Structures are given as structure tokens and as C-alpha cells.
Amino acid sequence: MSERARLLAPLLLVIALAVAWQLPGADWLRLSDPDPGDAERITATLGTLGDEPLVLVGFDADIGTYAEIRPTVRSLIADLLAREARLAFVSLTAEGRALATAELGRLGRGEANPTRLLDLGFIPGAEAGLVDLTRELRVSDTADSAFAREVGVAGIGAFDAVLVIGGNDLGPRSWIEQVAPRIGEIPFLAVTPTVLLPEVQPYLAGGALEAVLATPRAGAAYRESLDLGNLARLTDPIEPRPLPVLIGMLIAVAVLGQALGARAVDSLRAARSREAG
Amino acid sequence: MRRPTLTALVVLVGLLLIADLLVVNTAVAQAAGIVIDAAILVAAGAALAAVAALGARRIADLWRRRGDPVAAVFVLVGMFLMLAAGLRPGSAGTADPAVQWLVAALLVPIGASLFGLLFVTTLAAARRSLAARSREGTVLVAAALLTTILLVPLAGGIGSWMADSAGWLLAGPIGAVFRGLLIGIGLLTAVYAARTLLGMAAADE
Hints:
With about 280 residues, chain A is an alpha/beta fold.
């Protein structure tokens, strides 16, 4: 590839994606999972939480993979608020804390009911921090809502469910290993990027995790199933478009396919020349 | 060189934490709590030290005119802005609107953009691994190509079949490889921990 083509290729990619983003949707493309089992499982679990449940949100997404789960995370938070849940956010990684801060700020701008939100901040120490929060949950002095007082008194025992927003640094596995054995039986839910699927699946199959949304397709199926009414303002304003996704994937397929094809042709030529020799 | 004090400390802490998990006892729980608090303080201290070291390194780069001065200035200005927004008198700390704006409008988008470049760099790395004629690289790229094709978001019967196949591929063979790696890492960690607990670590460990 010439130097000019090497420089132009990323630019052309960006232009192609921008054009695809503007084009209308196509019926022959579908982002959501044809089997909505994961979405139904998480909805069913939320339905069992009772009135005004208290949910501890372990927000430890990482910046690299958050774009994959962001629409689903925002929809799930809106869904929980629509079910009148009260959400306490805690982070054990620096990136998770930055993203949680951004999401809490966004919820504030979206005029989410502030009495239903509680920021428990950042606990350093990763796994040690998880063990620590099973012993004591420190509520900020500035948080004076009834929700904050309830959490301050009862600690982690106040919560009806744990929702883990996982990332590469800390995910549901750490929560199940460090927190689940130390507290009573409450449902653990998770939203994770696809890269965590292999380590999450055994916990889901074993029942330690009640429900997981771990692929973009499962997330899209869950978002399609929601009817949030007025709280739809808290979700992403624009759903991910399948056409730019398709174009990106086709470019990846073309690049990888060309390289693999060239490698196969080289191997064949080498084999034939050995035979001829 | 073997350090018996360190080994004894690790043995003590390990046994204490295991006892705290298995036995309901106030004294043990309090002792374990002290250890966990210490671990958290060390982690917090290490994080702060890392940030301070980064700042000191960039200042030294500028002072000695080495490295990339523009990058050093950006890092230092970014650190100063974040510290000023969070620590200035009257600030609400991480809940302060200025901090939230810096995070939501600058930090997260910049970080996400950098990771977005992975699309290009990963493809380039895949091509390089094939150009190096590595057999493992060929298998890796072929698996990536197959998975990517199956994940193409088509509707209809073909799309459902491809989605099911991709799900099976992720949950079955690819998941098995990942889990195998995780189990291997877990076993190695357990063996190393047991060796440390029993004082059997090699001299160079």
C-alpha cells in the first residue's frame, strides 16, 4: 500500500461511516438478538424486586468498551427509575468513577429524581474495596436524603439487588467472588462488554448471576422491549445505527480476508515450487 | 534472597482473611478489617504516587528539554485544571459541575476516541501477524474473520442463523479457550500463593 493510500484509508473510513450514519435505516438489517432470552431474563428479574427497590450499582465500566454497553446501561438505569427503584452508585476503578460521574451528571441534567440517586463515590483497592463495602458503606456527609440515611444505617444489607456495570478492569466475577459470599442472597445483575462473556457465562449458568446483558445484540433486544414513557429522555437520544456497524464490519472482513487470501496464495505457491523443485 | 518476615506476613494475612470468610467471630472480623483497610490505603497511596510520579516526570521532561514538550504541557495543564476544579475553595469535589464537565466533555470522549483507533490498529496488527507467516497468527485472524462475518447484523432467517452460530461460537469454542486461560491463571495463582504461604518460594521470586 502506498504512503498516500495509507493516509487516505482512515479518512475514507470516517467519511463512509459518516455518510452511512445519515442514511435511513434498512429493513434487511437488524441489530437486536432474534432470541430475546437475555432481555426477558433481566426484565423478569427486575419484576421480582418489589416496590421501590434499593439497587447498588457497581459502576466499573472502562472507557475502551463503554461505547459498546452505554445505550444499554442508560436504558437499564432509566428502566430501574421507571420502576421507582433507588440507585446507589459506587466505583472501584478510576475509569469507572469517571464514567459514573459523567452518567450521574447526565442524569442530573435529565432531571432524574435526585432523591432516588445516591453517589457513594470511589473506593480504591479493587477486590479489597469490594470486601470493605460489605462491611461498611460510607455515605458522604453532604448526602442527607432518606435514602442516604437508610444506606448509612443498614449498609449493603439495605439493598434488594446489585447491578454490576462491568469493564476490563473489574467485572461481575469480582463481585460474585468477593461480595456474594459475604451478604444475604440478593439477585446480581450485570451489563458487560462482549469480551467478558466467557468469564461471566459460568456464573450465569450456575445461578450466581441472575441475568446478564453481555452482547450488543442482547442489549438491543432489551432496549427494544422497553416502554419508558417520560423517562425515555434518560436513554440515548439516538439508537446505534446498523448500517455504519455493517460498513465497519465489512471493511474489517475485507481487510482480514484479503490478508488471509494473500497468505493462502503464498503458501500454495511455496508448496508448488517445492513440488516442482 | 528469601525474606522470612515477608513470608510470615503473607501467611498471617492469608489465614486471617480465610478465617474471616469461614468463621463468624467479632475479633477475627475486626482484625481482617484492619488488614483490608491497610490494603485499601496502600492502593490509594499507590494510585496517588503514580499520578504524582507522572506529573514529576513531565515537569522534569520540560525542565531538561527531553521527550515531547507539547504532550508534557497537555498532561500538566490537564492535571492542574482537574485539581483546580475539584479542590478550589467552595468546590463540591467530584460532584462539582466543573469536574463533571471536564470528565464528560473532555476526558471520556478523548479516551473513547483513542480506543476507537483500535479498529484501525487492530486490523493493522492482524495484517502484520499474517505477514510474519505465524501459524498462530493465521488461526487467530481466521477465527476473528469467521466471528465478524457471523456477527453481521442481518435480519430474517439468515440473520437469525448467523446470530445463533455467532452465539454458539462465542459461548462454545471461543469461550472455552478464554475460560481455559482463566483457569490456568487461577491454578498458577493458587500454586504460587500456596508456595508463598508454605515458604517454598524460590530465591529469585
